[in-house]
Amino acid sequence: MMEPSYAVQVIQTTLAPAVMISSSALLLLGFQNKFSALFDRFRTLNEEKRDLKKKPSRDDFEEERLHNLEEQLTRLMRRATHVKNAILSTYLAMISFLATSFFLFWSNYAQYNFNYVTLTFFGVGLVLIILAAISIIVEVTISYRILTIEKKS
Fold first, then answer.
1. What is the pLDDT of residues 33-51, one digit of tens each?
2. Is residue 8 part of a domain?
3. CB under 8 Å to 70, separation ≥6 — which residues?
4. Domain total in the chain
5. For an engineered disulfide with 101, which of 17, 34, 39, 47 has Cβ 3.0 to 4.6 Å away?
6. What is the pTM of this model?
């Protein structure tokens, strides 16, 4: 029979990855909302671009707007790529944290020694969360540049 103090330690140890999974899920919610907004914005700007290109003749303002739209769409695509990378990194981090929980369970209940594997999966999850954060930082920087482009028109 397992001693109560040992059971408490096992529960505490197992909760760390669960907290990371919950935190990752919250990050994913924000990232996916951002991705959806980018997707909608891309479609709107692309439709405006198509409408301008259909016109048989365009004045200087419309030509400038068309150029502006093409530049914004290029940067929006780059932003979407960074958000997509953040989403994928966060999903992979969640898988790593789930694997951490799995190996913690097996280390404690099956009496196998998976300590290094467990720590590796947890560390990989943390690195993936850092990579997701870096992707979002880059995306925000690109977003700011798009605002400066939009301000010009």
1. 999 999 999 999 999 999 9
2. no
3. 49
4. 1
5. 17
6. 0.83
